[in-house]
Fold these 3 entries.
Entry 1:
Amino acid sequence: MTDYRSRFHVPGPGPYALTHSAGCLPRSAAAALHTHYLEPWQQRGGDAWGTWLGAVDEFRGALAAMFGGAASQWCPQVNLSSGLAKLLGALPAPDPARAVWLLHEDSFPSMGFVLQQAQRQGHQLHILPRTQDPGLPATWEQALTPDVSGVLLSHVHSNTGRVAPVEWVAQQCRERGVLCVVDVAQSAGILPWNVETLGADAVLGSCIKWLCGGPGAGFLWLRPELCAQLQPVDVGWFSHADPFEFDIHHFEPAADARRFWGGTPDIAPFVIAAQSLRELQGIGVHAILAHNRDLISIFRAALPARWQASVRTDGHGGTLCMAAGGDADLIAPRLAADSVRFDRRGDTLRLSFHLCNDAADAARLAHAFQPD
């Protein structure tokens, strides 16, 4: 098994199993931040914009290299919620007879909050209950009724790890003239995919989790034909075709996805994230997933028999979401006492293995599940 751990700053002293929340910082990030952000600022002050914007262009290019499409189709965002709000605000007023947006109950709450507020624009929200498996095409087929105008689909659901059949749903949406937007926050960097095969109209994501790029480096990808049709309301000077024109009487939206950018951008998060993307691209997502699956196999083999069946990878992402029931109150303190970084949602324990983990970590986590 290849040792990738040395490439990251891994918080100690125990195993780090919290990548699904925030990935570990690459050791190369500090030098990139100094070279592409701090040093130009120190030496050139306000004249550093050329270097800074070049670094953001590198971020867009790194996204295209990893996930497909052209760099021009990717727009930096501060987070997924902001990107979704910008996208919804750019859509035409909905037809009351066809205004429903579908969302599964296991989606990240922040996305639901945005869609709830969008009801003030005339959109309607239909939340599919968690009793309906989001990994089954039948769940979505039944919900795609004639009044549906859009679907917000989580590629991987953070509370269960369940993978949605994105390509199938996107195809169904195309046939029905329904907008398909995919949240890749929990799949980007751990599951192999690209925008061409997903088939969605828009993709929203963040670099904080499996991409190890930290907070503040979100992104929005738009199908070019759709992008050209949309006129965002939430704009700023960096949404302009020429941000440095400085004519208050003239606004010409950027021809590409930058029209969804906005006002003065932060730079540092995208410098760090671009470096992390380069690191992971050099390793390859297939190798990252294989490393994850190898460690899950070691973890499963070290578990007592009663727990092994609850460790599933088929139809699931990189995170183990283990429904522990009443045992959660016994196991969670054991993990914490062993300095394991993890979290829980109710009685579900969430554990993730990434490049910062090794076989010893996997075996150590399994120890907490041993009977007294």
Entry 2:
Amino acid sequence: MAQRILIADDSEEIIEILQILLTGEGYEVVTAGDGEEAVRLADDTIDLIILDVMMPEMDGYEFTRIVRQTDSTLPILM
């Protein structure tokens, strides 16, 4: 079973590049265009989050605070 990576970024170009590279390496990629969508998608099936700090609706810092309330060990790259 492929590891799942959540990419949260408001830049479609960055999401597309990361998705191409990561799926090419065998990862399953889930994408979100803003912090609120990322919170909805960040469940226990996600193995890693790649996160933009400056996003609309909710920035990366607020997203991280929310995720850390439910899962303190999920790796997050900002």
Entry 3:
Amino acid sequence: MYREAFTLRNCSVCAVFWTAVALRAQTPHMMTMGDMGDMNAAGMFLMDNMSGTAVNPTAWPMPMIMKPLGSWTTMFMAQAFVVGTQQSGPRGGDKLYSTNWFMANAEHKLGKQGAFEFQLMLSLEPATVTRREYPLLFQTGETAFGKPIEDGQHPHNFVMGLGMQYALALGENTTLDLYAAPVGDPALGPTAYPHRASASELPQAPIAHHWQDATHISDDVVTAGIAYKEIKLEASGFHGAEPNENRWTIAVGPINSWSTRLWFFPSSRWAAQVSVGRLAHPEALEPGDQIRSTASVEYSKPMPGGSWSSSLIWGRDHRTFTQRNVNSYTAESELPVSRKNFITGRAELVDKDELFDAMPETQRLLGIYYGSTFRIGAYTIGYTRDIGTFHNVETGIGANFEAYSLPAAIKPYYGEHPVGGNIYIRLRLLPSYN
């Protein structure tokens, strides 16, 4: 167990960040075409994107501020949690930290049928998540201080996304889509959890993150897509390595990985996808490549105070070095029970094969756990209460509780009934409706 607190420097950084993004605006996301000025059908197509070219159901009331800037349309989104975590058992941890992100897009019409958009997404997690991770039982993936992260979640990069996207309406029902990003999100997996409608009141990552949506921060991404009525088909090339431990920098690498994704939108409330990709040596300390396959269904129904949003997600990693398949299953939902009260839930089953990779060599030789696979269940229930909106920043307080199921063989390392809890303050940028 360990305990950490924010330094004065980190608190000051957070304050500066939220002062900067608390923009005053009067324009909500649900706008008329007249309010959008020169935005054409291609511009509307681009506006629905959340991370790279991934989308939530279009019925979801996206918390976005829109402001005209000459002939440009600008869009701003931001969210932050200040979280206190406590976890039980020999491998549990305690910590105070913040997860956060800020997104700014600038969109312009190009001819009668085309539009392009510049995208920027930033996070201060390299400063607000100290020692390169926050405690999260049974989470694995990436490294901290040269060792595999076990029972912890790494911070996001300062530059989470930086790219440009172009859309061209080829006809009434057909749109061509091109995307290029030094840092971006290839066409692989569902909408990443920081931006997924069903996870917007959950400050912690799913333990299935590296089986489902971990490529949402990738280097040197290029994507081409074609949308026809309810169908969208995409293909991407990108650099397959996970971000390095220096989260302040932008890395570069050859385009050595690929993915393809097929979307289906039967109505504005539904978004479904299947995708597959080959990642070249994604983990720094793990030999070989990974073949990732995913499928997901997302649903959003607008309700007073928000929307009822749910997701069902499956992800599989095939390790080419060990020839092992590891699967993950996630069910996630957020329900506004009134205008200011939200109930959230997440249930996961994940095959974990990296829980003991950092074990000392002497223990590896004596034990059977290194390289073994264990089916872990993680179950989260939470509640958030909105407090009020101040200068376009919606504030709320909440808590969630996590329980786990695990094989008897590893209970000596985790305890008979490991649990965790999070208490948090949530801040979100919202338009003013006054």
